[in-house]
Structures are given as structure tokens and as C-alpha cells.
Design brief:
By secondary structure, the protein is an alpha/beta fold. It has 13 helices and 10 strands.
């Protein structure tokens, strides 16, 4: 394994950028952005932190290959392929749907980085969590369960949550310097890890990026001490569903980038920042607050959009 890179990925000097935007200044609100997107040119954002616990477990128990699941534009698949390439282990990506004649840029990158891609039907993909499916999958791939560590889709689960406890320390963040912390939420694992690393006095807002995410709060709560308060899942900013956009979202992303110079993606960070923008304008964020937003990366996925 590339120990030098492993240590670099676990450093604690990621940039925390203050942005003085007009819509914040009107309410005397300070906004800092933790730039996880600057962690590495290919192993970017929160996906590293969700993976690292799984990889530590895999290495400690002698697994040579990491296998996981995702779609054609999956940030998780992209980051896992990059981790395998740069750190020195084999990777397999089980991809939802039939193989297209022209692969997405994400999957082209994954293959370039050495990941073995295996496509399954959408019907079969829905069974990916079952023991029967996984046993058949390994048989189809011709690999042994003793060699392959299976990482849940998105890098979620207890090991993913544990890795995300290191996100705030990565920027040497003292959570009590802020009244609120905002971040995008797909599975809720990153949100759970951040909640576990902050005191209850700091409000944590996870912005769900998919439609019908009322289940997410329950999933997050499973990883927290019973009765833990000071957090919530915002479910009104999905813009039609996972990977969906609206003209207002795309316009906001352009506006934000022009004013701040910070790129956002329309799947995760754009929706998170749109939610924060709305909360500021409606008074849900009190005037005079100091806010931290976590830029969770995902910019490679923005290549699938025109805006």
C-alpha cells in the first residue's frame, strides 16, 4: 500500500474558505466552507472518509480487493477506483443497468483506473444487499469471498460513519465556533459521522438530495446515542429527486460560482447550498450566525450536466 498517500489523505490541513456573499452580508451571517473537494484530484470529498474505515478493515483482515455498487455517474465508484489505483489494491464496481455502448465519463475513468466493471440488471441490482445475490455475484465474477471485501453502496454502514467522524478534524474545525453546520446527504452516513463529532449545541443540517427521504432521519439515528438532539434532515431541496435538477437550481449554482469562485455540483453540493440560501432568506438561520458548510466534492459527476 502507498503509505505516503494514505497519510496525505488523512491530513488535517484542508482549506476552510470564508465567503462574503451578498445574500449573507444582508443578514450579517458569516459562512465558512470546508473544502473536502480539494483533498485529492481523484479521491475527492466525503467519499474518501466513507471508504477509509472499510479499507482499513479490508487491509487488516487480508482482503486484496474492494467491491462496491453504484450507477453510471457514481462519485463513490469513481473514488473507490481512484483509491485502488493510487493506494495499490484491486477494485470491482457492480454497476446498475446494462453496459452502454458509450460509457459515462465516470465509468471510463473507473476502467482507466483499473476497476473491473460488472453490469447487472436494475431488477437484480435491487437485491444487492442480500446474501444470495452476493454469493452468486462472487461466483459469477470467479472470485473468493476470502479475497473480496464488499463495501455497501455509497460507502455507508457503521464503518462509513466512523470514517466521517474525521471530516471536521480534517480542517481543524472547532465545531463550537459555529451555530450551524450544513452538508448534503445521500445515505445519511456522512451526516451521522459529523453529528457524532460535534456537540449538541451546534445544529447539524443534512440536506437530502433525493425525493421521499423521510426514512433518512431514522437511518441516521441508528448511528447516534439514543436521544441525541441538535440535528435534522432537510427534505425539501431534492429538486425532483436524485440526480434531478431544476432551472432554479442550475441558475443558483451559476450565481454562486460567479460570486464565490467555488464550483458546486447539481447532485449534492448545489442542493445543499440552495437549501442554506433558502434558510437564510426565510430567517431559519438567525441573523448574525456563523455557519460552516461542508463541500463534499462530487464535482466529477457534474460532467454529466450542461449548465
Amino acid at each position: 500500500m502507498n503509505i505516503e498517500l494514505w497519510n496525505a489523505l488523512n491530513r488535517s490541513d484542508l482549506p476552510v474558505q470564508n465567503v462574503g456573499l451578498s445574500w449573507l452580508q444582508r443578514k450579517n451571517i458569516q459562512l465558512d466552507i470546508l473544502r473536502l473537494d480539494l483533498l485529492h484530484h481523484e479521491i475527492s470529498g466525503n467519499k474518501w472518509y466513507k471508504q477509509k474505515g472499510h479499507l482499513e478493515h479490508a487491509f487488516a483482515h487480508g482482503y486484496s480487493t474492494a467491491l462496491s455498487f453504484g450507477g453510471a455517474w457514481s462519485n463513490h465508484i469513481h473514488a473507490l477506483a481512484a483509491s485502488g489505483h493510487h493506494l495499490g489494491f484491486s477494485t470491482i464496481g457492480v454497476i446498475r443497468g446494462e453496459r452502454a455502448e458509450n460509457l459515462s465519463l465516470t465509468l471510463q475513468d473507473a476502467e482507466r483506473l483499473g476497476m473491473r466493471l460488472h453490469f447487472v440488471s436494475r431488477k437484480d441490482y435491487r437485491e444487492k444487499h442480500t446474501e444470495e445475490f452476493q454469493n452468486q455475484l462472487l461466483a459469477d465474477l470467479g472470485v473468493s469471498a476470502s479475497d473480496v471485501w464488499i463495501v455497501p453502496e455509497g460507502g455507508s454502514g457503521a464503518l462509513g460513519v466512523k470514517g466521517c467522524e474525521d471530516i471536521l478534524p480534517a480542517g481543524r474545525i472547532n465545531p463550537t465556533d459555529y451555530q450551524q453546520i450544513w452538508l448534503a446527504a445521500g445515505t445519511g452516513a456522512t451526516t451521522a459521522g459529523v453529528i457524532r463529532s460535534a456537540p449538541e449545541s451546534v445544529e447539524i443540517h443534512g440536506v437530502a438530495v433525493l425525493k421521499g427521504a423521510d426514512w433518512m432521519a431514522g437511518d441516521v439515528a441508528q448511528h447516534l446515542p439514543e436521544g441525541r438532539t441538535g440535528w435534522q434532515i432537510e427534505t425539501e431541496y431534492h429538486c425532483g429527486g436524485y440526480g434531478k435538477t431544476t432551472p432554479d437550481l442550475l441558475s443558483f449554482i451559476r450565481f454562486f460560482e460567479e460570486e464565490s469562485g467555488i464550483p458546486l455540483d447539481p447532485v449534492y453540493t448545489g442542493k445543499m447550498m440552495l437549501g442554506l440560501f433558502d434558510a437564510v432568506n426565510t430567517g431559519a438561520v438567525p441573523e448574525g450566525s456563523r455557519i460552516l458548510a461542508i463541500h463534499t466534492g462530487g464535482l466529477q459527476g457534474a460532467r454529466g450536466y450542461v449548465f
